[in-house]
User: Fold this.
Amino acid sequence: MGSVRFPGKPLVDLCGKPMVQWVYEAAQASGVADNVVVATPDQEIVDAAAHFGAWAVTTAPDHPTGTDRIAEVARNLDAEIYINVQGDEPLIRPESIAACAQVLLDDDSAELSSVYAECAEDELDDPSVVKVATDLEGWALTFSRYPLPFPRQPRREPVKKHVGLYGYRKDPLIAFATWSQTPLEYAESLEQLRFLEHGYRFKMARAEATPVAVDTPEQAEQVRRILAGT
Assistant:
């Protein structure tokens, strides 16, 4: 609720529902979740979740990242796999959530998962759009706000845009919250780099990106027009 650019953002009304409800319903519609939990430090969100029938868990208010918040929940809620769906993605596709989970369901050797989509030309130099480079088997090599790879030669494949979904098994998730912020994580302000710097790997899957996440009131209005079909 304390977003600097958009105070009260999680509960902004989007065509008759608070934003967090759209995200919750997308997670339910993914078909892979035994439980969908709203993790929040804010009582207003807990109350709103109760109103639309969601299970909400109150967490500490000072977590530096969303993964730290999920780790707190995981310490008290046992599960095989945890999927982190960010609360400012009201247009997140249920199929993308399912794709993130399916990586871990299909590959017992994978401890972390995420998804990517094709990066549009007008997003290549946008630092708010995170890119990911993968090896030939789909494991993430690194994430960056800079376009990857650098086009010293003409690109043979599209740049991969990271879609901000994360899947974790419990052990690396709990470990994450015990580590200090790492150098690459600090430089790029990307929490997933903390895992890479500690030797863990993300298995990536292709999925659909969302048209827009909500960081500002203007983006909320854009989402309303999309939801209304105008």
Remarks:
- The domain at 9-228 is CATH 3.90.550.10 (Spore Coat Polysaccharide Biosynthesis Protein SpsA; Chain A).
- The chain has one domain: 9-228.
